[in-house]
Amino acid sequence: MSRTDELISRKRAESQSFDQAFQSENAKLKAAVALIELRKKEGLTQRELAEKTGKPQSTIARIENGNMNATVKLLEEIAQSIGRELVISFQ
Predict the structure, then answer these.
(1) Which of 46, 34, 40 is nearest to 70 (CA)?
(2) Are 66 and 28 in contact (CB under 8 A)?
(3) In what helix (H) or strand (E) does residue 74 lie, and over which residues does it extend?
């Protein structure tokens, strides 16, 4: 485990508010990575994906940058617009 991982683990154990903030940011980043991978797998630009979803390109960019807490509804709309299914799992 890296020093960074150790520090994060310690801070999460010490502070409930830090742990909640960490989990929230981590979820946004996972959604960002998943959307980027999906879009690239489909061979689409952000603009092309936005056109298919009927959303502004800036919405796609904000999700991919981790700057937007995308709702399940929005992620479902994106998935459906390209014939995919949104799958959520707990680990």
Answers:
(1) 34
(2) yes
(3) helix 72-81
Give the integer Cα–Cα distance in Å for 69 and 62: 9
For residue 58, the tally of other CB atoms under 10 A from its CB is 12
Q: How far apart are CA 17 and CA 22, in angstroms?
A: 8
pLDDT in tens, 27-84: 999 999 999 999 999 999 999 999 999 999 999 999 999 999 999 999 999 999 999 9
Rounded Cα–Cα distance for residues 74 and 71 (Å): 5
pLDDT digits (tens, 9 = 90+) for 7-25: 999 999 999 999 999 999 9
Measure the CA–CA gap between 10 and 14, rounded to whole angstroms.
6
All domains of the chain in start order, with CATH: 16-81 (1.10.260.40)
Q: Report d(CA 24, CA 41) in Å as an integer.
A: 26
pTM (two decimals) = 0.86
